[in-house]
Amino acid sequence: MQNKKKTIRLSNDLLEDIAMAMNENSHEMTWYLDIQKEETTFVSDLYDEDEALREMIENDYGERFISIPVRSSHEGWRQMEQFIILPDNQDEKTRDLLLATIQGSGAFGRFKDYLYRSGLHEQWFEFKDREDRKYVLDWLCSLDLIAGEDIEKGMQLYEEWLAKRNQHEKDIANMTTGTQVKCIYNDGHTDKLTTGKTYEVLDERKIHLNIRIRDDRGKVCWLPKSHFELLHIRKV
């Protein structure tokens, strides 16, 4: 029997890591929640060096370490079905086509291919992430590692993260010629960029998500948009 030793602090990183572990279907890996460090860890049958960790888990199982359950393929199928039949989620024709993709073997591959072809993949990923987050929070609550009210807090953390991600994607799209951007990190480009410094966008490559700026050396070069934060959108 697993006994409660402490509660854990909620963070998007931890909840995402647990969700990933629950969706991991490798037979060689077994995932655990390390309550003390508030992180996930795993042991693998492929690595001999995991023996020390395996022994530690066995000696402290139920106190410090708890195994993370792997969700079954049937649960994954039900998740796809729930996405398809959501009210007002798709038109009737799309719904029928999606339902057809999840029949028989190879269902997930066909389902994913259709989502990308029809442009519904982002909608699916948001739905799946929310459902995975709810599942993780319910599991933690069932173990008394979080309180009941923490379920709402955990969902709010996801919505806040999603809002920031969506805003960042909009900012990336709006990094067009004439806008001002601030360098947020310069890994691999320390000779060209200074963190916190503002640069003007001289040109952009939308497909490659690159912008052209005049760097610290006075040279014009192409760099990834991900290195920058949008400061000002040019007014026309």
Please name the defining characteristics of this protein.
236 residues, alpha+beta, SH3 type barrels, 3 domains, three-stranded antiparallel sheet, 7 helices, globular
Write the layout of secondary structure elements.
Blueprint: H1 12-22, E1 29-34, E2 39-44, H2 51-59, E3 65-67, H3 73-85, H4 92-101, H5 107-118, H6 121-142, H7 149-173, E4 180-183, E5 198-200, E6 203-205, E7 210-214, E8 220-224, E9 228-232
Antiparallel strand pairs: 1-2, 1-3, 4-5, 4-9, 6-7, 7-8
Task: Write structural notes for this entry.
It is a single chain. By secondary structure, the protein is α+β, with helices and mostly antiparallel strands. The protein has 3 domains: 12-67, no CATH class; 73-172, no CATH class; 180-232, SH3 type barrels (Roll). The chain contains 7 helices and 9 strands, in the order H-E-E-H-E-H-H-H-H-H-E-E-E-E-E-E. The protein has helices at residues 12-22, 51-59, 73-85, 92-101, 107-118, 121-142, 149-173; strands at residues 29-34, 39-44, 65-67, 180-183, 198-200, 203-205, 210-214, 220-224, 228-232. The strands form 3 sheets. A 3-stranded antiparallel beta sheet has the order 2-1-3, sandwiched between helices. It has a 3-stranded antiparallel beta sheet with strand order 5-4-9. A hairpin with a 5-residue loop joins strand 7 (210-214) and strand 8. Helix 1 packs across helix 6 (121-142) and helix 6 runs antiparallel to helix 7. It is globular, with a radius of gyration of 23 Å. It starts with 11 loop residues before the first helix and ends with a strand. The model has no long low-confidence stretch (mean pLDDT 91).
